[in-house]
TrEMBL record:
This is Helicase C-terminal domain protein. It comes from the Bacteria.
Amino acid sequence: MSVRVENIGNYQFAANGSSTNSNNMGMREMQARAFAKRDSQYLLIKAPPACGKSRALMFLALDKLVHQGIKKVIVAVPQMAIGSSFKDTDLISHGFFANWYVNPKYNLCGPDSDLSKSEKVLQFLDDPKESCLLCAHPTLIYFYDKLQDKSKLDKALIAIDEFHHVSADAGNRLGTVIRSLMHDTAAHIIAMTGSYFRGDSVPVLEAKDEEQFDKVTYTYYEQLNGYKYLKSLGINYAFYTGRWTDAVAEVLDTHKKTILHIPSVNSSESTKDKYNEVGNVFDIIGDVEFRDQKTGIYTLKTKDGRLLKVADLVTDDEWQGITLQSLREVTKRDDLDIIIALGMAKEGFDWPWCEVALTVGYRRSLTEVVQIIGRATRDCEGKSHAQFINLIRKPDALQDDVADSVNSLLKAITLSLLMEQVLVLNIHFRAASDPADKDDENAPTIVIDDSELNLSDTGKEILKEGIFDLTADVLNSEDIKNVLACEPNSLNNERVKEIIKCVLTEKFKDELLPQDIEAISQAIVIELNKKDIFNPKPSQNTTRGDGEKGAENIVDAPAPFVTEEGGTNFVDSNQHRFMNLDDLDINLIMQTNPFMGAYEFISKVVDAPTLKRIQDIAVSSRAHVTEEEALILWPSIKTFAARHNREPDVHSSDDYERRLGEVLAYIRNRKAQRLAAEQEA
């Protein structure tokens, strides 16, 4: 067994306290920014964990109740455990005009059945004395299905926490509720998320619906830069051979407050026995002394004599609920040292003293990565550094390929922390003779011209539903691998197209007509090249097959590449799932050294100027600014900065300010490019 650690990110922050200081109404920086948009009917808040989104909602909801004619507030959270974020809160003593209160009768994040909860929501709407209700996402869905008279919500505010659980897909029931609220009622909607993208193949909202939302964006960098205590964030990748239960001993520092997420039982890293894995981790930490009968938390004695308190959230027995509840009541640093979890302790989980988020197994979902990082980035006295470590099986790939993937992954995570979209969209295909589904009319769609092909019904169905999986089959073909190994940029050559047709013919045999094979082959070639098709350079005039311009804010489709143990999944996934990263011309790896029979990557320091540089490149690459426009708007940028004592915000809801911010990013990027060229000359 060997381990190598890839330290691919080290973020440093000013720690000036601005994001945690409160104004005269008790609002922190992000909350005040959101409150400035309190009159919006539809408001989307994109902000990282621990910056106070829950309390921001309280401020907004109370203002709508007191000043805007709203009569009912319904707050929906993805898990009942997260409901504690909206507990009764004293706001008046900090300068606000009202306190947040939810009658226990209408706090539905409890043990009742969903049926009784949906009935209680209906009762709540008719209760003249109460204004606020708290429930889980499923309760909102069930209740909304039962509500016959949707006009009862015309004077209601519906708030959705962790909004990335919504999607524009017709099968997403929460997304259906949001669309109906917007189209069939006069309800107000507040959506909150720390990661406005999903881990699947569909956008969170349709473009026409998202345009109606005012937006408040507060990036991870703004939040962390304004902390009092936390000064840096590190991102490490540790590659191992053998079993992870042996390798984890080399990266688990029992002197640090740590959340350890073990791998999914369905992953290649898992031993398939999660209980034995927990036992192995216990053995690494020390010997069990006793288990607290009130909290369910274990006390272990380390080899050097220290006593550590360890919570097991993996073992699903009668103790699990007791342990989870006790974690919500942790009030002191010494109450807990290590948490071992599988699916818990991610979004909405709050343990401010956590210093290290140690995750075993490669996570395909960038949303999940950002959520896990958020567990360690709470500001807390005595914590100056936070660390995310991902322990991954060593891929069977060339060193240069792994280096490229590590660099791409760091860039993708960095952009995501800056609330930039970096994930590849999923393309819909259909034959021209096949009518477009109404539910898919806003999806990025490519129409295959079959006017001379006369496709079979089976061929049309595969075009609509099967291209993604077939592309995976093609990429796993040995013939394709051999061609691409010799000619990496040969996705469009005739040899590749012939191989695709052979794969299809062998797979479907007599099920498809030759013309079906031809049309499906076209679609697969497009799927293979979708990064270039849907992320065109400014000079291109690429449109969808139906004549509309391709949508931009689309999220990633799961990578269709090999997942066998010891395969190249880490490399293949990261090479193909991120968009715009080629435009981000930054190498964040300083040097590569031999390490324990393999190699390690030593990263450059990613500090405040580097983060700003990355954001400037990302913004300028998607904004399509010309040099002529930059010259015209430069005086306006200087005037704006002098008048407002700040730079124009690239995330502003004001179109003019946002454009000034984009042009400023372009100017900075061009200046950096010029300086780099002069240094090389």
